[in-house]
Amino acid sequence: MPKIPHLPAAATALLLAVATPAAPAAWRISEIVADSDGALLDEDGQASDWFELHNTGAAPASMAGLFLTDDPDRPAQWVCPDVEVPAGGYQVVFASGKDRAVAGSELHTNFSLSAGGEHLTLRAADGSVLAGFEAGFPRQFWGTSWGIGTNAATEDVELVPWPTAARWTVASDLGGTVWAEQGFDDIGWNAAQTGIGYGYDFPNFIGAGGDTQSAMQNIAPGAYVRIAFEVEDPAAVQALTLDLFYEDGFAAYLNGNPVASGNAPDTLTHDSIANSGREVRAGDAMESFDLDFAGLLTPGTNILAFHLLNRSLASSDLVLAPLLRATLVDLSGGFETGYLESPTPGAPNAAIEYTGFVRDTNFDIDRGFFDAPFDVTITSNTPGATLVYTTDGSTPTLANGTQVAAADALTPPTAVVPITTTTPLRAAAFKDALRPSNVDTQTYLFLDDVLDQPAPPAGDPDPWRSRNGNQIPG
């Protein structure tokens, strides 16, 4: 066994119990939230820090024998449990300090993360870094995440169009859902074009070879349907949406894994019926289902399968017409790290919104009371940034306020603002591809203005209150 630096006794005991090392995998710490807004709560209802491990390999991999740490001097700080992450799959780990490492339960490290940025790595038994950020991830912002992704343009494609080639058979006891898996032999099934079913006269609703009436009506309440489709690179798939016409019920599977259902009983067998009746009428829109597909797609041929359910043996109609849409991102430019406006725990990352952040604005004179005019100098330490300021209390944006650009791409911006009267001065800094700074405010009060202000002052509400029908001015 390789030498393990700084291992605690518990970690050493665990490693000795592992007969073989963790399966080879291409690990990645793909997303971090170190200033949570509570969008993802842990099992205690708390807004803990969290991060996401991504197995980018082509085979399932176990976390057993691996370690996570936020301290480079303690490479075995938290011992990972024996949790298997599927090929292309994700595992969310809460950095809460609660130290819970039980397979099948929520994972919590014995450390938390700093919103100011810090070291975070996944390590092998010999202490070598498998994934993470040795030099530290950067400053984090409330309600956003930081991780690995791309800001390349996305493209919407139909992986399974309508109509498309399919195979179907009357539902029978084939041993669980083995019939929905990739390697199942469906050569003896009926070849057809979608939709599948009977009793529908709408144009193109029942495809060639897809009429199931003679095989199902008064015979069987369900049918199995398999549709093959191709995926060149699963990592390029950012979203999957299943659009359906269906009557009466269905359960959908992606390579044997359940991903969507409608009107299907919780316990599904080959002779199950739909929970209730449902009709599709001419002019209806397809019902859409956003699929959780993380770790379920493989390069090459994939299988979208359905258990189609009728409400009764004697039902006069039945239909299934699916369309599978994907949002693909161009990965030819590779990946980069940056901020994601919408965290996606346990799922592929959204597009990178910003690759860094603009430094805060600084005012050379702080808020206070004054009796003579003066100039305020506003700066930001980000070269090439643009300062925007307002003096009427409104929020400075690229569409509102006075803009002062840096002299060139290598020079930080500077704005000089004359203050001659009571002024709420607000400022922010902006630069392409970087997260804007927050809005800073300094309010300068001139005593003579305060004493001479009218009742009510311009812009203040009138009345402030109303009592017994009498208005009370500010």
Description:
- This protein has 474 residues and is mostly beta strands.
- It is 4% helix and 38% strand.
- It has 3 helices and 35 strands.
- It has helices at residues 9-17, 213-216, 447-452; strands at 27-33, 49-55, 61-62, 67-69, 78-79, 84-85, 90-95, 107-108, 120-123, 129-133, 145-149, 154-160, 165-170, 190-193, 196-198, 222-231, 237-247, 249-254, 257-262, 287-290, 300-309, 318-329, 336-340, 356-357, 361-363, 368-370, 374-380, 386-390, 402-405, 414-419, 423-430, 434-435, 440-446, 465-467, 470-472.
- The strands form 9 sheets. It has a 6-stranded mixed beta sheet with strand order 8-7-2-1-11-23, with no helix packed on it.
In short:
The protein is mainly beta. The chain has helices at residues 9-17, 213-216, 447-452, and strands at 27-33, 49-55, 61-62, 67-69, 78-79, 84-85, 90-95, 107-108, 120-123, 129-133, 145-149, 154-160, 165-170, 190-193, 196-198, 222-231, 237-247, 249-254, 257-262, 287-290, 300-309, 318-329, 336-340, 356-357, 361-363, 368-370, 374-380, 386-390, 402-405, 414-419, 423-430, 434-435, 440-446, 465-467, 470-472.
